[in-house]
Amino acid sequence: MKKFIKGVRFTPSNYPDEIEDKIQKYRKQGYKLPPRKVLRTPEQIEGIRESAKINTALLNHIAENIREGMSTEEIDRLVYDFTTSHGAIPAPLNYEGFPKSVCTSINDVVCHGIPSSTEILKSGDIINVDVSTIYNGYFSDASRMFMIGEVSPEKQRLVQVTKECMEIGIAAAQPWARLGDVGAAIQEHAEKNGYSVVRDLCGHGVGIKFHEEPDVEHFGRRGTGMLILPGMTFTIEPMINMGTYEVFVDSADDWTVCTDDGLPSAQWENMILINETGNEILTY
Where does the record place the Peptidase M24 domain (predicted)? Predict the structure, then answer.
């Protein structure tokens, strides 16, 4: 016999009624909401946190070992060995054909650089190391910039302002705000400092899968885009270019993304959990 249910609940059953009621009000007003499946349960959040602990420890391990004269292949080996020794899996390895365990992106490489035994870190380089971890089926993701040897003041400033862009974006990612607020805050700070924001790549939901909804763009207009709700987990990872925001994918490997004008690019990435009062940084 068919049962009739009064009303449709949006949030998981263990979410507070106040959050459910507030979402329903926004829904009636026509706000764009994320899919229900991206609101994490307490069990999922705990699993994601455990994955995130390994991911952050891994970046700390890289920070302790990265140096002038090492190859990016050595960084890849560090990542694989550390991750697997902690009972986890490097999420990039074999993801859609990506051949390595980490992305290493130097100078004018924006992202998705593939580690190589012939690519040697030298004084003056800036490098983004992007690591993602699967632990007990839960995903985490973060990246940091590293400056090798004597780095020019211009590159140092780019790295610093890019980190500020990420931090400003995180500060804007509040419950009941809009994703456009996050993008606008990042874009304003980057352009105020004379830089550009890459348009063709974005942050993303992560936790149950490597890449989930929503897309988190790092440019935009305030008061637009999807509503940010408690229970969401996603990355904020602005890619900031010294010159034009235009990029291209290197046809030699169909992965490496480079700046169109050959000028340097920087990126920082944290993964956050939206809660009832703000957000929690899960990976850094």
Answer: 46-276
Three-state DSSP state, 76: helix
Residue 101 C-alpha from the chain's centroid: 16
What DSSP state is assigned to residue 164?
A: H
CB atoms within 10 A of CB 128: 27
pLDDT digits (tens, 9 = 90+) for 239-265: 999 999 999 999 999 999 999 999 999
User: Which residue reads 């899968």 in tokens?
Assistant: 209
The CATH class that applies to domain 35-281 reads: alpha beta
CB 99 within 8 A of CB 76: no
The pLDDT of residue 155 is 98
- Check residue 62 and give left, alpha or beta (phi > 0: left; psi -120 to 50: alpha): alpha
Binding site membership for substrate: which residues? Answer: 112, 211
Segments making up each domain of the chain, as ranges: 35-281
As separate numbers, helices (DSSP H) first and strands (DSSP E) second, the chain gives: 5, 15
pLDDT digits (tens, 9 = 90+) for 133-151: 999 999 999 999 999 999 9
Q: Is 179 left (phi over 0), alpha (psi -120 to 50) or beta?
A: alpha
Binding residues: 112, 130, 141, 204, 211, 237, 269
Pick out the residues of the known binding site for a divalent metal cation: 130, 141, 204, 237, 269
Q: Nearest 5 degrees, angle CA 134-CA 257-CA 218?
A: 75
Residues 13-50 have pLDDT tens digits of 889 999 999 999 999 999 999 999 999 999 999 999 99
Tokens of 127: 């490098």
Strands 279-283 and 89-90 come out as unpaired
